[in-house]
Amino acid sequence: MSLIKDLFTNWSVWRRPGYFESFDYSWGMVIDLDRCTGCEACVVACTAENNLPIVGEKRFSENREIKWIRIERYWSGEYPNAKLSFIPMLCQHCDQAPCEIACPVSATYHNQDGLNTQIYNRCIGTRTCAVYCPYEVRFFNWFSYTWDAPLEQQLNPDVTVREKGVMEKCTFCIQRIREAKDHAKDDGRRRLREGDIQPACAQACPTKAIVFGDRNDPDSQVAQMASDARGYTVLKELNTSPSIVYLRRVDQEHV
Amino acid sequence: MARKKNPGSKLSRREFLALVGTGTSVMAGAGFLTAKFSRRPVEQLIPYVVPPEDYIPGVAAYYNTVCNLCPAGCGITVRIREGRAKKIEGNPAHPVSQGGTCALGQSGLQVLYNPDRLQTPVTRRGERGTGDFHTVGWNSALTTVASHLDKLRLANRGAGVGLLTGDIRGHLDDLLIQFLGLMGSGRYLQYAFTNPTNLYSANAASFDTAQLPYYDIANSDFLLSFGADFLGMWVSPVSYSRAYGDFRQGRREGEDKGPRRQRGQLVQIEPRMSLTGANADIWVPAVPGTEGALALGIAHIIAGGAGRFAAALAEFDPPRVAEISGVEASTIERLARSFGDAKAPLAIGGGGAAAGTNGVPNLVAINLLNHLAGNIGREGGVVFNPKPAFGRTGMQRHGSYLDLLAFVEEIADVDDGVLIIAGTNPLYDFPGDERLVRALQRIPLVVGLSSFMDETMQYADIVLPVNSYLEGWGDDAPEPGVGMRVASISQPVVAPLYDTMDVGDVFIRLAQRMDRDMQRAMPWPDFHAYLRNAWRRMYDKRRDKLDYVDFDAFWTAVLEAGVWGETRRASQRNEFHAQVDYEPPVHAGNDVDYPWYFQPFVSQGFFDGRGANLPWQQELPDPMTSIVYGSWIELNPRTANELGVDEGDILEVSSPAGSLRAPVWITQGIRPDTVAMPIGQGHTSFGRYATGRGANPLSILSAQVDSRTGAFAWGATRVNLTPTGERIRFVKTGGWSRTLDRQILGPRSGETQEGGDHG
Q1: Out of B81, B107, B757, whose CB is closest to A157?
Q2: Chain-centre distance for alpha carbon A26
Q3: Are B754 and A234 an interchain contact pair (Cβ–Cβ within 8 Å)?
Q4: Rounded to an integer, what distance in angstroms lies between the CA atom of residue B723 and that of residue B725?
């Protein structure tokens, strides 16, 4: 009984607006679709930084690819007035994340920085979270992948290589956040400064479409850009409160 | 078939634990166990007495160097941990990349750590082209080549020695010129089919400046691009993408503050929608090769029948241009009005517009638009670069397709000809033209310098393995620059993985094995020393202007920053020297037997094919189609209907020069009279990830060339399509290609987002 009571208590805490603003940081991202060209530099950058496996042609054809960030493409109109729009899709780090409710072992949870995190050695591979995720950004390791030698020499030592049976997803490059916090501590600073952290996708982006920062800091670039008139969140009707705000691409057909 | 059981699998878990528990004597007795179950014994950790420089376990070191996966010359920063390269980032201080990278640039680590890298020198054993090689030592390989060269040189027949390279710039280029000069040969040619030969020529004709200018996209407010996929892989994609971001949503004063400038508008004119076309506000599908007529049509309206070009432009009234280009007259008028009214209009031409038989006249016509807009040397316009601090421009270094053919055939005609090939793979990116292979076959000695056994290396007698760009020294003056002098040094970020050498070192070592004159003329111990000498000379020339204690301080500072530059700008007057006229494109194949224009395009992942052996690039969804691991041919839905084919149906694509098979991809982004195929796949020899995958569209192109420059006209072939009845399922990322009214791309302008507000 007390368990259920706890759950209800915690639930209201989870649902309390502004809850995450009471913590030190609330990491967020703004993606300007008017800058984004769909060039996919972020996709390779993420693969390189986070030790994503190369699954091979056969497994890719079985939809077992692992891409923490991908470019989605949407066509509208017909030739010759066809239009193609791109949107980078990655874990939205929802403040009210459906995946977190789903996990029977709490392998995925919300940390105090507002990150939706995945604990690999807690995950038992029920894949429920992937079913609950409306953004389709969780990926299951159906196999333990290997790297043809010497490609494994590139693997990032700061990031775990996942094995068969665990779910994985975008972490907002949590290893970089950790490192930056350590450096800040070494420098005797309590708080991180704007620009201390860039996830791999934002760093690689040649058009600077991806901006990352602390939403709790009203002076940060993300906080300011998030209030842009073009700002929106994907699938807002699901009430997931994503940490990623997209800025709509401008339609300017009348030249 | 009965599977042979592993002896280990007979053990139950309990027995196994017992065995392990009994200690080492049992382990030693059970060899299968140690092999099957136990890990390698823990080796002793021995600390370094003198640790290598910058090697702190757990702490990353960062080195600046230069990317050379395409000729743009972006500055990159490589993250090193425990002596291994982990990540490539753009160098924020480098004015070309400004901290960004492209997808291909990120994959440079897989060039370095590629499992298919050539690790030792090899010599040919079987017939040329069969790939039958055996390993030799460096000493014997170098001595073989050096003694051959020495003999020729002493007999005054060194002129028969030729050097063919890809895109080699900076002081390495100087070293190679010197080496060949000492041999008594001037036969040195660079060839890359993506080299914008026609753009150099058109700029020389129009503005009397044979160089690639800096297009100030960021400060333009109306960009008219004719076929130039500058957001894809055209010329300097990272630099252009960076500028494009600001062109759309930049701010005038600084990056974050100040008023937002007016959003620039992009119009892309091309028969097949490229990545740039997808990002354009208006995509104008014109008939391939007629871009010049369209440019003249726009110029006709802007000039309004007055000025120096009135006579030349007189006949390009909108109805006539509409007939040529297939673009409605009203659209042409609209574009001309917008271009004329814009504060800082800019016209760029390249890609398909430059890849016909009429590439140069097309580009000259596009240049005229910039001249009429008063764009030369202006902010938001076309800014020419000052003479680079060192090295030759691409116009001086590169040969056209015809130059290359003549070059190789001439060497084949000499007795005892020697051809040294470094960093280029013409047998892949050449049309279905047997002449090059035949000429190669006739050359007595072909020496290759390469990291991979690619298609061209199969025809070499000796292949010397060279360092990847992350293991060697070099320098670079990027082209196009950024309107100022920029130079960077590339330095080894990791120790060479294998027994490989820099290209420069190979030539210095060869000279050391030749007679005394050669040794004396090339006295440097290695290429690094040569490079330092060259930079010392540059330093000495500017010593008074530079604020460094001595050369060593300067050298270290440049290595650390990864870039060095001078802010002096070139002055350029807005004068136009060329005659403008429209030259209709000539396509190989008549329109009855070959009803479709065939437009191969440089792909995002593979560039000119060199990225195909990188697994990250193979697994990178194509931006337009999301297809991975294969080739496809893009068809308009109308074309697909006519042929009665659907997505995945395999077509036989035949041109006057050959045929290939490719599966159908139906797209709204292509003209019904045009079909398109990505370049990059279809390698016959390029390592395990690339070989035997997809088809190479270049292999069925006719040997069409630009009428002025002899550059390979890779957009000037027509094809016929025949369904084969076979089909495949594309390997691609899933999902719908339409939003189905969900607000994935956001609310329409003027509307606010609906839904979900119960937080």
Answers
A1: B81
A2: 13
A3: no
A4: 6
Structure tokens at B423: 């960093």
Contact between chains at A251 and B81 (C-beta distance less than 8 A): no
**Interval B332-375: pLDDT, tens:** 999 999 999 999 999 999 999 999 999 999 999 999 999 999 99
Element (H, E) at B268: strand B265-269
Across the A/B interface, how many CB contacts are shorter than 8 Å? 260
Q: Which pLDDT tens digit goes with each residue over B671-681?
A: 999 999 999 99
**Residue A71 near chain B (CB below 8 Å):** yes
Least reliable range by pLDDT among A103-107, A193-197, B317-321: A193-197
The CATH class of A16-247 is alpha beta
- Cα B274 to chain centroid, rounded: 16
Residue B332 and residue B274 in one domain: yes
Which CATH number does the domain housing residue B230 bear? 3.40.228.10
CA distance A128 to chain B (A): 20
Q: Name every residue whose Cβ is closer than 8 Å to that of residue B443 and which is 6 or more positions away in sequence.
A: B408, B411, B412, B417, B418, B419
Give per-residue pLDDT as tens, B371-401: 999 999 998 999 999 888 899 988 899 999 9
In this predicted model, what pLDDT tens digit does every residue of B120-157 receive, in sequence order? 999 999 899 888 999 999 999 999 999 999 999 999 99
Q: Which residue of A has its CA nearest to B284?
A: A80
Extract long-range pairs of B521-526: CB within 8 Å, 24+ residues apart. Answer: B521/B178, B521/B182, B522/B178, B522/B179, B522/B182, B526/B502
Q: Where are the domains of chain A?
A: 16-247
Alpha helices in B55-137 (DSSP H): 103-106, 108-112
B17-52: per-residue pLDDT in tens?
444 333 333 333 333 333 444 455 556 777 777 777
Q: Are residues B134 and B237 in the same domain?
A: no
Q: Does residue B8 sit within a domain?
A: yes
Percent of chain A with pLDDT over 90: 81
Tell me, yes or no, whether B400 and B535 share the same domain. Answer: yes
Q: Which tops the pLDDT comparison, A137 or A190?
A: A137
CB spacing of B275 vs A54 below 8 angstroms: no
Residues A102-110: contacts with CB under 8 Å, at least 24 apart: A102/A128, A102/A129, A102/A131, A102/A132, A103/A128, A103/A129, A104/A128, A107/A167, A108/A167, A110/A14, A110/A20
Residue B497 to residue A150, Cβ atoms within 8 A: yes
The range of the structural domain enclosing residue B714 comes to 596-727
**Contact state of B753 with A233 under an 8 Å Cβ cutoff:** yes
List the single residue in B338, B619, B756 with the smallest CB-CB distance to A60: B619
Q: pTM (2 decimals)?
A: 0.91
Q: Is the CB of B86 less than 8 angstroms away from the CB of A252? A: no
Are the beta carbons of A241 and A94 closer than 8 angstroms? Answer: yes
Contact A76 B738 (CB under 8 A): yes
* Both structure tokens of A99: 């995946």
pLDDT tens-digit readout, B639-663? 999 999 999 999 999 999 999 999 9
Restricting to A residues 24-53, those with a Cβ less than 8 Å away from any Cβ of B are: 32-35, 37-41, 43-45, 47-49
